[in-house]
């Protein structure tokens, strides 16, 4: 359905036809469409949805539109919204809304809902406990498959997923069974005969980035969350992990571009906020770059004697920065995917050294020939070529070491990306260049 058709049906008050069209769309697509409308139009269209569909559509909207709708909702509409929301989505809403709107929502939540909300909010913000939902299917090992299927039919509507059930003994997780296993085995078979006792799980305090890595590693759709005594307290589903992956990627991209991470979209962020998120790193990088200027000033006599040396400074600095950025990007990616660990630092350094030697030699040869053909000066060609090789080696080693060191001391490796690496490598390349030139020209 297109936005124009939606608006036309709203303007002509063809609500019955609009309702029929909305029922054919997925909740995600409806949420996207309604967010394109003015608030009043959005509210009218939203009220045409069934209670359960409305709750799913609402959970797929951005926080700004959710806030606006909650302010418009009547008490009856709020009750329906709270009753039909999954607990993890309701907790996310409570976390992000202003206090006055949170109070309105909690006033309509049941005592058990408020207890679960408070429990989930007590976990660290980026942990599996904060990410999980408490709506899952729990079976007993003594059940037959027929009893389990009947239980799923009865309780499945209140669970986040019906594809996987968990076998517990006094709340302790002892096994996992898929609905496929239940459907493909005899109805009289006991659950303990088909359940898997070798399963993957995470703890409530496990970091959400680690949870995402477990999902990726084992190709999971859902993951149980246990406490320190291995009591099952919740599950994390694939849709929530996808959100984590997007958030973590956005955060890493921001840090790699020397920006402070920001949850808001580009247009939702004001000019002042954009400037605030950018200025700190820009100031740090600007003042750190003055070191490069100081080094150039120190070797002023060298380029007064051989003025041509100055023209190759930008090329050396850019090449060094690019080489360092290549290495740091690959290492940061390797750390994120758990392919590279700090204990492998010397192995990584040796590999990057060999790469740098090969790449640097090719770049040096190409530039040496170019400079000799243009200026007919063997010494300058040799200075630039040798400086290039050393600069490439240094930059690639710096590019691989810094992210690993940052990760080792508990910092995000993404901060050791292009802007910072480039600034450090610029200083090193200038030092190398003028020291080589001083020796070759006996300055």
In brief:
The chain has 443 residues and is mainly alpha-helical.
Explain what this protein looks like in three dimensions.
This protein has 22 helices and six strands. By secondary structure, the protein is mostly helical. The strands form two sheets. A three-stranded mixed sheet has the order 1-2-3. A three-stranded mixed sheet has the order 4-5-6. A hairpin with a 2-residue loop joins strand 2 and strand 3 (172-178). Helix 3 (27-35) packs across helix 5 and helix 15 packs across helix 16. The mean pLDDT is 87.
Mean pLDDT: 87
End-to-end Cα distance: 75 Å
The overall strand count is 6
Helix share bin: 55-70%
Task: Please state the overall shape, judged from the principal axes of the Cα atoms.
Answer: elongated
Order of strands side by side in the largest beta sheet? 1-2-3
- Number of helical regions: 22
Give the percentage of residues in beta strands. 5-15%
Low-confidence segments, ≥5 residues, pLDDT <50? none
**Secondary-structure element pattern, one letter each:** HHHHHHHHHHHEHEEHHEHEEHHHHHHH
Structural class: mainly alpha
Largest β sheet strand count, sense and barrel closure = 3 strands, mixed
């Amino acid at each position: 359905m297109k936005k124009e058709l939606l608006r036309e049906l709203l303007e002509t008050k063809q609500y019955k036809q609009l309702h029929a069209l909305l029922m054919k769309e997925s909740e995600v697509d409806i949420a996207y469409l309604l967010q394109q409308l003015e608030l009043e139009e959005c509210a009218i269209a939203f009220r045409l949805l069934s209670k359960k569909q409305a709750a799913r559509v609402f959970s797929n909207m951005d926080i700004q539109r959710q806030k606006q709708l909650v302010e418009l909702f009547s008490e009856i509409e709020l009750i329906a919204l709270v009753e039909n929301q999954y607990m993890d989505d309701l907790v996310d809403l409570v976390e992000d809304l202003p206090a006055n709107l949170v109070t309105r929502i909690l006033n309509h939540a049941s005592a058990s809902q408020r207890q679960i909300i408070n429990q989930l909010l007590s976990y660290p913000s980026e942990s599996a406990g904060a990410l999980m939902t408490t709506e899952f299917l729990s079976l007993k090992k003594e059940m037959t498959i027929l009893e389990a299927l009947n239980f799923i039919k009865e309780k499945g509507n209140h669970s986040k997923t019906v594809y996987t059930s968990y076998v517990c003994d006094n709340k302790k997780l002892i096994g996992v069974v898929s609905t496929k296993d239940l459907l493909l085995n005899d109805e009289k078979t006991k659950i303990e005969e088909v359940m898997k006792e070798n399963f993957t799980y995470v703890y409530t305090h496990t970091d959400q980035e680690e949870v995402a890595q477990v999902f990726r590693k084992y190709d999971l759709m859902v993951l149980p969350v246990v406490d320190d005594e291995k009591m099952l307290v919740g599950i994390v589903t694939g849709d929530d992990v996808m959100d984590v992956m997007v958030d973590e990627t956005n955060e890493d991209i921001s840090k790699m571009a020397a920006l402070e991470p920001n949850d808001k979209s580009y247009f939702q962020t004001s000019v002042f906020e954009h400037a605030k998120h950018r200025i700190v790193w820009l100031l740090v990088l600007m003042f750190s770059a003055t070191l490069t200027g100081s080094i150039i000033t120190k070797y002023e006599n060298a380029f007064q004697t051989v003025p041509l040396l100055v023209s190759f400074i930008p090329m050396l600095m850019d090449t060094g920065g690019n080489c360092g950025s290549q290495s740091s990007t690959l290492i940061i990616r390797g750390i994120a995917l758990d392919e590279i660990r700090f204990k492998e630092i010397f192995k990584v350094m040796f590999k990057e050294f060999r790469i740098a030697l090969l790449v640097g030699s090719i770049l040096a040869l190409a530039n040496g020939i170019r400079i000799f053909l243009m200026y007919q000066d063997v010494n300058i060609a040799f200075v630039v070529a040798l400086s290039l090789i050393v600069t490439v080696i240094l930059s690639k080693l710096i590019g691989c070491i810094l992210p690993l060191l940052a990760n080792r001391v508990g910092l995000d490796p993404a901060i050791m990306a292009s802007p910072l690496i480039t600034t450090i490598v610029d200083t090193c390349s200038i030092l190398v260049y003028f020291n080589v030139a001083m020796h070759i020209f006996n300055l």
